[in-house]
Design goal:
alpha+beta, seven-stranded mixed β-sheet, globular
Length: 240
């Protein structure tokens, strides 16, 4: 089995969020660790391996590299699936990596509130997908209408969920449930894999998302990065 292609290393060095001097972290709540750099594949992977993710500081503004404290995660053994969500799951068809660019486009719809995924981000994650590091779960209604999805970055046992969207009730939740199935599917160290959702929103809390400290996230990240990818992604066939 092929593994994802390792791109050239980044020309930027990211600080370790856990090693910041206390004076740089007032009240323990500093979230933006750095500003600038680029969105090349090697830079993105270096950031995720440090526990950072990119997001613009404001629309059209510079790239910030974020490390929330606390950090939102969904424990794979703590996923909450309500009866209504189970019913919704039976209404839809779910695929993996069938329409990555379309999912990113759905997440970046400018009509959505607080949208931040612009063309530069879409290109960057598309490039990461095509060398095997970024993945999507798609939710379809009647087989041909894309009504929801989630995308993110998989490194070993880490899946860093970047964004999700829905055009039908519960479609984004169905995507998350399917994502957890992928992460747990082969049973290899499934309890130590890490599903990072950045912040615990009320919406994600209904699925079982919880807050962990930055220090605890660092421990979980180190453990997750040492694990193999889930079986469906240990391949070089990532063209969409």
């Amino acid at each position: 089995m092929q593994v994802p292609i390792e791109p050239p290393p980044s020309r930027f060095d990211f600080p370790d969020p856990l090693a910041l001097p206390a004076s740089e972290e007032p009240d323990g709540e500093l979230e933006v660790i750095g500003v600038g750099a680029d969105l090349e594949p090697g830079t993105l992977l270096a950031a995720y391996r440090r526990g950072l993710f990119p997001m613009r500081l404001h629309a059209g503004g510079p790239i910030g590299w974020w490390s929330p404290d606390p950090r939102g995660v969904i424990p794979l053994d703590g996923l909450h699936v309500s009866r209504s969500l189970r019913r919704s799951s039976r209404r839809f068809q779910v695929t993996v990596d069938r329409a990555f660019d379309d999912v990113v486009q759905g997440c970046g719809d400018p009509s959505r509130p607080h949208g931040w995924i612009d063309a530069e981000f879409a290109r960057a994650y598309g490039a990461l997908h095509r060398i095997g590091w970024a993945h999507s779960v798609e939710v379809w209604d009647a087989g041909d209408a894309l009504v929801g999805g989630v995308y993110g970055v998989a490194i070993g046992g880490l899946f860093a969920a970047e964004s999700k969207f829905h055009r039908a009730t519960d479609a984004s939740k169905v995507a998350v449930v399917a994502l957890v199935d992928v992460l747990r599917g082969d049973g290899v160290d499934a309890d130590h894999r890490l599903l990072d959702v950045q912040w615990t929103t009320p919406h994600l809390a209904t699925l079982g998302a919880v807050d962990v400290s930055r220090a605890e996230y660092g421990v979980r990240l180190t453990r997750a990065l040492s694990l193999p990818l889930p079986a469906p992604w240990r391949t070089d066939k990532f063209q969409s």
